[in-house]
Design goal:
456 residues
């Protein structure tokens, strides 16, 4: 990658960190404050935790489509301004209802899909996977950092300090957008960059994509409902004070990453992924069952470690599955559906979890999580064998000699080629292949059209 692409990856990764910190820092803090916030109940605390997910789910696709019309930067800047406003509303709220309103406003700044599209606009196709890897590390790191910083800041400056910090982070994000994020002058026409609203239903008709969307909905339902419980479980041990939660989260997350790393490297192999998905759902079921039973120090820590290991691995597996099952020209739309299901699951998990905890106790909430995870497990078993797919980018310097349909037909004639997206004005083709059937030199051997493989 050149310096421009490195700067792009770093700046967009930093924007993801700003967003994730602001949305997730309250997760380990709010459940402990039910007695300190005016009018708060477990149900309303759950709603405050998950409110951002509702507005994110509703606006992720529309704002992504809007950015195709008016440009990426205006949508990103507007989203950050609303995010800052929501943080300030929550910081100076006098009761739980003000916090809920602030969290809703934080979520309205739904810029994730726009940031992903911007990556495609300003990076070369042959380096885009590297940029996405940098962004992925930023997202994962910010989640862990949020769990550690949240309790630390709450201990130093209270809940108001947490929300003021997120507002300040949003201001940093504005500076990053204005000073560091490049403005594309010629927008890439990579079909994976954009969300096409008219294609949502046809893409949703893909069975394995529906399974993946249900999976990410279930995973984030379980995550958010569990975070209503985890801080309470730690306090119930009698050995973990609120001021020590940040240290415990750090130790547990570190241990879970050590456990998951070997499995993560193997997860890209289709045969192993097929076994790993139900295995990690099973670990999630076991961890949820243990949360309903354990109350001692070491069992609680072990349960949390199992939970985070399964969650983080599933967070790696599920988006990879989306990229494999989505048609080559519909990746942006498929990821829009996936993101909507993700945020909807977060909202539902926090809201339903708060209601259940207010009416009963921890065990009943965990049984609901177990039931959902079992349903996901059974649904996932019906999935076909995950394909060993790959998208190849080809340059077509002499494309004008043939019609578009002739070019596409020629590419589809190569054994192992599944589908083709042709961008005529840029003389590019995106070709999805099944590596189990595809000859690596198959495309290069084509006489007509002549092409050059840019990225494999």
């Amino acid at each position: 990658m050149n310096q421009f692409e490195i700067r792009t990856a770093a700046s967009i990764g930093l924007l993801y960190v700003v967003r994730m910190l602001g949305l997730f820092m309250v997760l380990p803090v709010l459940p402990l404050l039910v007695d300190d916030i005016e009018a708060a109940t477990p149900a309303l605390i759950g709603l405050a935790i998950g409110a951002y997910g509702l507005s994110q789910a509703l606006l992720q696709i529309p704002l992504g489509a809007l950015s195709d019309r008016i440009g990426r930067k205006p949508v990103i800047l507007g989203g950050l301004l609303v995010f800052i406003a929501g943080s300030l509303v929550a910081a100076f709220a006098e009761n739980i209802y003000g916090i809920i309103l602030g969290r809703l406003l934080q979520g309205i700044g739904a810029i994730a899909s726009t940031l992903l599209a911007l990556i495609s606009d300003v990076t070369r196709v042959e380096h885009r996977s590297k940029v996405m890897a940098i962004v992925g590390v930023s997202i994962g790191g910010s989640f862990g950092l949020a769990l550690i910083l949240g309790p630390l800041l709450a201990g130093l400056a209270g809940l108001r300090g947490v929300f003021l910090f997120t507002a300040a982070a949003g201001i940093v994000g504005l500076i990053v957008v204005v000073c560091l994020v490049p403005t594309p002058t010629v927008r890439s026409r990579d079909p994976g960059a954009n969300v096409t609203i008219t294609r949502i239903l046809p893409v949703l008709a893909i069975r394995d994509l529906r399974r993946t969307a249900f999976g990410i909905f279930s995973l984030h339902f379980i995550l958010m409902s569990s975070f209503i419980v985890l801080p309470l479980l730690m306090e119930a041990t009698g050995r973990i004070a609120g001021s020590e939660h940040a240290t415990v989260y750090f130790q547990v997350l570190l241990a879970s990453f050590v456990l998951m790393t070997p499995l993560m490297w193997l997860s890209d192999r289709p045969a192993f992924m097929r076994m790993l998905l139900p295995a990690m759902i099973t670990v999630l079921i076991v961890a949820s069952l243990l949360m309903s039973k354990v109350a001692d120090y070491y069992p609680v820590l072990a349960t949390m470690m199992l939970f985070f290991m399964a969650f983080n691995l599933l967070e790696v597996i599920l988006p990879a599955m989306v990229s494999k099952v989505a048609p080559v020209g519909e990746r942006g739309t498929a990821m829009g559906i996936y993101s909507t299901a993700q945020f909807a699951g977060g909202f539902a998990g926090a809201a339903v979890g708060g209601l259940i905890l207010g009416a009963s106790d921890i065990s009943y909430l965990m049984y609901v999580n177990v039931a959902l995870a079992v349903a996901w497990f059974l649904y996932a078993l019906g999935a076909g064998r995950p394909g060993n797919y790959k998208t190849i980018t080809c340059s077509l310097p002499n494309q004008d000699q043939l019609s578009a349909s002739q070019v596409v037909d020629a590419l589809l004639s190569v054994p192992g080629v599944l589908d083709v997206a042709l961008i005529e004005e840029e003389h590019l083709a995106y070709v999805r292949v099944d590596l189990d059937q595809y000859d690596e030199d198959g495309l290069s051997r084509l006489k007509t059209p002549t092409l050059e493989v840019i990225s494999q």
